Amino acid sequence: MLNLSIILNELILSLVIGKLLIHKLTVTEVFILTFSYFLIRESDIMNMFPTKKSEVISNLIKFCETELLCYSSKRNFDLGIPHKNVSKLSPYLSTRFVNEVEVLKIAVSKTNVESIEKFIDEIFWKTYWKGWLETHPWVYDEYIKSNRVQKVPSKTGIKCFDYWKDELLNTGYLHNHSRMWFASIWIFTLGYDWQSGADFFARNLIDFCPASNTLGWRWVAGLQTLNKPYLASSDNISYFTKYRFNPKGQLNEKVISKYQNHHNNKIVKFKQPERLQLKNSDELGIILNKNDLSINEIFDKQELTYHCCLFSTDHENKLIREFQTKIDEDILNRNKNFCLTKNYQEIFCWLIEKKIKNLILPYETVGNKILNNHQFKNKLKKLDINYVFYLRDWDRNAFPHATKGFFKFKKNIPVLMNLAKI
Ligand SMILES: Cc1cc2nc3c(=O)[nH]c(=O)nc-3n(C[C@H](O)[C@H](O)[C@H](O)COP(=O)(O)OP(=O)(O)OC[C@H]3O[C@@H](n4cnc5c(N)ncnc54)[C@H](O)[C@@H]3O)c2cc1C
């Protein structure tokens, strides 16, 4: 379907151009062709990010069968929508609509671990960033306190930058390399703060992850790997976009780092949350939220009975809101006895109605605080409910290693894979 729509897309575009060239286009023709072009564009976007778990998994299987073996050589190319050479799993991994273990189990079932090392590393990058931010929470606090907002000009004249801005606003997604180029141009050519760029991404990314986003922007700015800012060069952009763009002479390609005296060595020891101890599993409740949309599956495997509610609030960005609503619908359709709650009051009504005495909530990583606050926890105490912010073994095993650089962390990947039985 997707391939067909792309062929049609290209066909329509060439028809429009061809017709325009020979000046024989009527107003109606222009209207119909333009309308169909955008209709197909829309379907490309919808196909990029399905919202049923079954479709996400079948896309992943297809990706593993057709693209995974050349992932390491092709992943840096941004060839435009529909971004076939990368997995596009980030919107699902960020909320664990699908989780790392199931993704990697599928990947290694299709080939051997050695030949997909790069893909495995990338999956672990997100875990690493999350763990790193757990031990450097002040980095996130400082970023939030800086409260920088920058209006993005509708046109800067830098074609690639303007294109990526529109792609982000229209699809909620950007290829990793384009995120790097975009961030670099934002900071070093346009002269904006990295924080305002991180904020722009945070409001518009369908896969927003506070750790990957904040630290990705800091990395480009030269704050993460100190004094090594990432400089987008026009040659690199031309090559890795297969010459779709060539911003020669438009970029500031000579930068001196502003952060000479900066350091990241204020490390807070990662406090492992207590392990789960259930007093009475008959009165067990689980809340799903964007920290973890599949935590219940761990308890399905243990054959525990529980009540479950999904806590979901409306995102201010329409595209993301619609995506999340459909994701929620899929969870509720697959689990008919789960209910949807939209605010604290509804959660408390559900807890009382179901007579919950033990409650499992997803562990809340830095930047993703939803229910881990005094107001919510005090109310749980008043209702005499035991609760635990449950940290998956995946994170429990990995986070303690994420204090320094990725290459130190990476040495632990084989052990972490073993512990996860992958
Ligand atoms: C400035 C900047 C901001 C970013 N913001 C986010 C964000 O908010 N949310 C987010 O999920 N990723 C973010 N990333 C990381 C990366 O760009 C995306 O994870 C990746 O583009 C997602 O596409 P994919 O799933 O097709 O990746 P694939 O290449 O198919 O990789 C598979 C998975 O590995 C993980 N991954 C891959 N690259 C990275 C990376 N550089 N850092 C962390 N994890 C990675 C993701 O979970 C991804 O889904 C950011 C990167 C930069 C440079």
Summarize the structure.
The protein is mainly alpha-helical and 422 residues long. The protein is built from 20 helices and 5 strands.
CATH superfamily grouping of the domain at 281-390: HUPs
Structural classification: mainly alpha
Question: Tell me, what is the CATH class of the domain at 281-390?
Answer: Alpha Beta
Give the SSE order as H and E letters.
Answer: HHHHHHHHHHHHHEHEHEHEHEHHH
CATH topology of the domain at 281-390: Rossmann fold
How far is the first residue's CA from the last residue's CA? 32 Å
Helix content: 40-55%
Rg over C-alpha atoms, rounded to the nearest angstrom = 23 Å
Biggest sheet record: 5 strands, parallel
User: Which stretches of 5+ consecutive residues score pLDDT under 50?
Assistant: 1-24
Bound small molecules, by name, code or SMILES, are: flavin-adenine dinucleotide
DSSP strand content: 5-15%
Record the strand order, biggest sheet: 3-2-1-4-5
The coarse silhouette is globular
Give the second-level CATH assignment, the architecture of the domain at 281-390.
3-Layer(aba) Sandwich
Number of helices: 20
Q: Total number of β-strand segments?
A: 5
Structural features, described:
The chain is mainly alpha-helical and 422 residues long. Among the domains are: 1-48; 137-240, DNA Cyclobutane Dipyrimidine Photolyase, subunit A, domain 3 (Orthogonal Bundle); 281-390, Rossmann fold (3-Layer(aba) Sandwich), CATH 3.40.50. It contains 20 helices and five strands. It has a five-stranded parallel sheet, with helices on one face. Helix 14 links the parallel strand 1 and strand 2 (307-311). Flavin-adenine dinucleotide is lined by residues 75, 86-90, 93-94, 122-123, 125-126, 129, 175-176, 179-180, 183, 201, 205, 207-209, 212-213, 216-217, 220.
